[in-house]
Amino acid sequence: MALRRIGILEVQVGEPVRWPICDRNGTLLLRAGSIISNEHQLQLVLARGMFDDSHGDTQAARARVSEAPKPPSIFARIGVLTGEITDVHRELLGVLHEEKQNLPQRVQALADDLHKLVVEDVNATLAALYLDTHESNILVRHLHVGVLCDLLATPLGLKEDERRMLMCAALTYDLGLGNLQEQLNQQKEALTADQLEQIYRHPYHGARMLEHAGVGDQLWLDAVLQHHERVDGSGYPSQLVGDGISLGARIIGLIDIYSAMIRPRAYRDALHSRNALRDLFMERGKMVDARLAEMLVKEVGVFPPGTLVRLKNREVCVVRRRGANAATPELLCLVRSDGTPVSKPQPRDPRDPNFAIVEAVSSEQFRSLEAILPTVFDANKTWA
C-alpha cells in the first residue's frame, strides 16, 4: 500500500472526498465520496489522513482518482490565506525567529491573492468572510477589511498600485496591538490603564514595525498610523480632522468599525449587518466620512452574501448574491416554513410579497446549515 499525506487543498468541509482516506497504518477513516461535515472533522483528517495511492476500495473510488482534481472552493482558499496572514503577522511581531526577509513583498502577494478571489467570485468571498465569525483566528477580520477596501477602490477611482497598497494596509493595520488583540476580544472586564495606553499607541507602533520590516510606501504607512483618527477630531493618536486624515485611513477606519460590529465579542453579541450599516450611516460626517459610508452601504448591500434571513412566509434563506437593489438580494431557501431543511436549495425573489425579507437571523441559530453553506456558493452549481 503506497501512502501519502493529504494536502490542505485536497479536502474541504461540505465536499465529498475523491479518494478513500486511511491513517498511517492503513485503517480506513473515510470512504471515497464521504463528506467532511465540519471544521473539527477537517482538522482531524488533515492531522491523521493519508491517501491510498496504490488502489481504491471500490471501482468508483478508482475512477475518482483518475478524474482531474476539482479546484478548491473560495471557502477553502480563504482558509489558506488565513494561515498565511497568521505567519506574516507572527514574523512581523518577532514571534517566529527567522530572518524577516521580503515581508513587504509577502504582504503584497497576499493582497494580490485576496484580490484574485474578489475578481473570481466577490459574492462567495464576501460570504466566506462574513460567515467566519467564530474568531478562532482574529486575523480573519483583516482579510474581511481587505476585501471591503478592494470593493471601495473601484468607485473611488483608485489606481491599481493605490488599491494594492490600501489592501496591504488593511492586512496589517492592527499589527501594533500584537497579542493584545486576542486578549481584548475575550475580555469582559473594563480596560486597564496599561491596556488603554497600548491601544492609544498601537497605530504608531504598527507603522514603526512596518518601517523596520522594509515598508516604505506612504499610503500604506499613513493608513496604518491614522486608521483610528475620526473626521470630527475625536480619534487618536493625533486628533486629526476631516481631510487631514489620509483617504486610506478614512477607508480602513470606516470598514474596521463595521467589521468589528458584525462580529461577536465576549461582552456582546454581533450586530446584524443591516443594523451595523444603519448605525454607521447615522455617524456619517461625525466619526466617519459621509461619502465613504454611503459607498459602503451601496457596495456591501443591506444584506451581504452569507446573511441568513427569515421571509414573510417563515422560510429561512441565505443571501447568495448582492442584487441590483441593496435591499433585494438573490436568495436561496434552506429551511422550510415548518423548520425542516430543504433537500435542494430553491431560489426566492424578495420582491414577491410572500418572500419579502422580514429580518436577518443569526447563523448561531442554524449550526446544522454550516456544512451546506460552502456548497451554496459553489460557482459550478446552479439552482433552479
Short description:
With 384 residues, this protein is α+β, with helices and mostly antiparallel strands. Strand 5 and strand 6 form a beta hairpin.
Outline the secondary-structure elements:
Blueprint (H helix, E strand, L loop, with lengths): L2 E3 L15 E2 L5 E3 L8 H10 L1 E3 L6 H8 L7 H19 L10 H29 L8 H17 L3 H11 L9 H7 L6 H20 L5 H9 L20 H15 L11 H10 L7 H11 L7 E4 L4 E6 L8 E6 L5 E8 L8 E5 L11 H4 L8
Antiparallel strand pairs: 1-4, 2-3, 2-4, 5-6, 5-9, 6-7, 7-8
What key attributes describe this structure?
Hypothetical protein af1432, 10% strand, 13 helices, 384 residues, single chain, five-stranded antiparallel β-sheet, alpha+beta, globular
Describe the protein.
The protein is α+β, with helices and mostly antiparallel strands and 384 residues long. It has helices spanning 39-48, 59-66, 74-92, 103-131, 140-156, 160-170, 180-186, 193-212, 218-226, 247-261, 273-282, 290-300, 373-376, and strands at residues 3-5, 21-22, 28-30, 50-52, 308-311, 316-321, 330-335, 341-348, 357-361. The chain has three domains: 3-66, no CATH class; 74-300, Hypothetical protein af1432; 308-376, no CATH class. It is built from 13 helices and nine strands. It has a five-stranded antiparallel sheet with strand order 8-7-6-5-9, with helices on one face. Strand 2 and strand 3 form a beta hairpin. Mean pLDDT is 83; it is low at 53-68.
